[in-house]
Amino acid sequence: MTLNKLLVAMMASVTLVGAAQAADLSIVSGDTGNGLAFLRSQLDKFEQQTGNKVTVVPMPSSTTDQFGQYRLWLAAGNADIDVYQTDVIWAPQLAEHFTDLTEAMKDVVGNHFPSIIESQTVDGKLVAMPAFTDAPALYYRKDLLEKYGKSVPTTWTELEATAKEIMDAERGAGASELWGFVFQGNAYEGLTCDALEWVVSNGGGQIIEADGTISINNEQAAAAIDRAAGWVGTIAPDGVLAYMEEESRGVWQLGNAVFMRNWPYAYALSNGDDSAVKGKFDVAPLPAGDGEGARSAATLGGWNMAVSKYSPDQDAAIELVKFLASEEVQKERAINQSNLPTIPALYEDKDVLAASPFMANWKAIFEQAVPRPSAPTKTNYNEVSSLFWSAVHDTLSGNGTAAENLEVLEADLNDLKGDAW
Amino acid sequence: MATDAMAPVATANVPKAKSELMQQRVRAARLFLIPMLVALAIVAGWPLLRSIYFSFTDATLNNLYGAEWIGFGNYLRWTVLESGTVRYRGVLADPDWWNAVWNTVRFAFWSVLWETVLGMIVALVLNAEFKGRGIVRAAILIPWAIPTIVSARMWSWMLNDQFGIINDLGMKLGLLAAPVAWTASADTAMTAVLIVDIWKTTPFMALLILAGLQMIPRDIYEAAAIDGVHPIKQFFRITLPLVRPALMVAIIFRVLDALRIFDLIYVLTPNSSATKTMSVLAQENLFQFNNFAEGSTQSTLLFLMIAIFTVLYIWLGRVNFDGGDR
């Protein structure tokens, strides 16, 4: 009996001493395959440098699933997760559960794009540090455009015509599974991103403007969404209505699409050895619409690292966030993962440009980036986004015209808004 | 709920003239029940009461403990506009909610109907004597043994329009002219969900019915066969009435399960309004949106619907959980 007690006491003291010296951290990740392996390799470096141990807690790849889970954990004050990876739109919704990083990061925030730091600052509190930013582009098949003597489309009308012509000709030549254009048409956050681009690129506003005005119910927005509805079943497969990023990349990477709208992560993967389109593609800014105020538009994405207020190892967790947002890791990330850095200096870095030459162009795309209306709508953003993507998905599926659906959407948004967001 | 329903059954067996021994036994039985009741109160009763409480407040996930009581506002509230028009708000006036109710009822009806019919057929086959029956019985349970999330994910790839095996097979066999985007289109989404659910739960139904079939004495069939009764008539006159108690219990298990269907739809078609059920809608409001109170209201309504349905079913269907008709 006494021996047992002694053993228990010894073991307890060993764990206590261990905890004081090196922290046991947990970080969530919704990444898969290469992305997860990359994160692990960086964490290994961190472990070597600091002696802390970091465990990756895998999460579903759907950001909606991740958000629901995080919100639940944070509301319950869960102390098991120390560092959260957060989507750019989550800052206003989860701000109160994260540690203020202003003080800890004051030496490094100046290196990042000010607009990104601003997007992660809620009421003067720096909620999360950017790990990488994201802005989608138009992926196109160089070989097919050359074969048919076509230039890279700069408007959606050109894209439609080029896609249709190449698709019809190639199908006639036996490539029966080739499609003109794939994008993300499933009813989820990704469709909000895609549709926001269509609407903004057609001069139709940003759904909800920065001052909180609901602007979505206008003719140019309706025209942009109606045009996209026309793609389904013609230049895009019917199944695009259920596609997320990975499904569209699947079709593209098998060589079955002329154009794809996707995030930069697909660049490195499409150039992988197992890819059917390796070396046969390039990227360009997304096309513009043709209404008044039409321009190319890319939805601003990106992921950030936040420290849970409930983490028992605050200092170690902040250290980890600082490490993962550092120039060194962002450079590695840009080279290995083709993720866009949030540090402007890296866009001129020789090693980065050698590995991902396209990044030189991306600085321009990034400057055209449009934020989703997460700042003006505050804690209601997810519901706003869901109402928007449902209206768009209904239109794409042929349930009503864009004009009808946007009118209802406007009424719903007004109800949700009440007196103020 | 469950304990309330069981209590009268237990006391009904006590003779009127209570002997000392009988009273002692009842006391002992109560004592033995206490741990289970306490456990139920903690894991089922408390969360249920909390949900119901939250449905009368303005709680959000960021502010659970500072929630204020607002009465029935989440269920139904109205404002009279200056023009005199009355605007109704709240879950009971929300078309999305009624769409979800309708989806749930539709799903429960069709899935249970098909599972019962197919389960009965499978059970009848398995009830027959043939070589390798044990292996077949075990094999048929596999879909039921796979966790729903796994099978839903598996099916969502199989149903994919570009690389799904269902479309590939359909095209090669000439059954489909073009690949069908099963989970994407509003017309086929419910069918896709039903197919997966029926695939998964028919074995469960078959197992419960099989247990009922094996209780039927063989000599009744022998007697019927000697009298020259046609096998089909045997089924409707002997098998069906005798298996009815087991069947009724199996059906209610499945209906209760189907009314709160969540996982399958959440994986296959999470945001399609053609398949969104009450549970999916409640989850969305609880965790995705900033509407914890509204989600609690929907959960409470779902609970009430299931409770009312169960009571009606047991009462109208005269189901007796002891086995055998009342």
Automatic annotation (TrEMBL), chain A:
Xref: InterPro entries: Bact_solute-bd_prot1 (IPR050490), SBP (IPR006059)
Question: Mind telling me which SUPFAM superfamilies this protein's record contains?
Answer: Periplasmic binding protein-like II
Which CDD domains does this one have?
Answer: PBP2_TMBP (cd14750)
Name the source's superkingdom. Answer: Bacteria
Q: Where in the cell is it found?
A: Periplasm
Do you know which Gene3D superfamilies this protein is assigned to? Periplasmic binding protein-like II
Q: Which GO terms describe its cellular component?
A: periplasmic space
Alphabetically sorted, this entry's keywords are: Periplasm, Signal, Transport
> Where mainly found?
periplasm
- Could you say which residues form the signal peptide? 1-22
Q: Which family does it belong to?
A: Belongs to the bacterial solute-binding protein 1 family.
Task: Supply the PANTHER family for this chain.
Answer: ABC TRANSPORTER PERIPLASMIC-BINDING PROTEIN YCJN-RELATED, ARABINOSE-BINDING PROTEIN-RELATED
Name assigned to this protein? ABC transporter substrate-binding protein
UniProtKB/TrEMBL annotation, chain B:
Q: What is its main location?
A: membrane
Give residue ranges for domain ABC transmembrane type-1. Answer: 101-313
Please give the biological process terms from Gene Ontology that the record holds.
Answer: transmembrane transport
- List UniProt keywords, sorted A-Z: Cell membrane, Membrane, Transmembrane, Transmembrane helix, Transport
Q: Does the keyword Membrane apply?
A: yes
> Transmembrane residues, as ranges?
28-49, 107-126, 138-156, 299-316
Membrane topology of the entry: Multi-pass membrane protein
Where's it found, cell-wise?
A: Cell membrane
Q: Does the keyword Transmembrane helix apply?
A: yes
GO terms for CC?
plasma membrane
Instruction: Tell me the domain of life.
Output: Bacteria
Sequence similarity: Belongs to the binding-protein-dependent transport system permease family.
Name listed for the protein in its UniProt record: Sugar ABC transporter permease
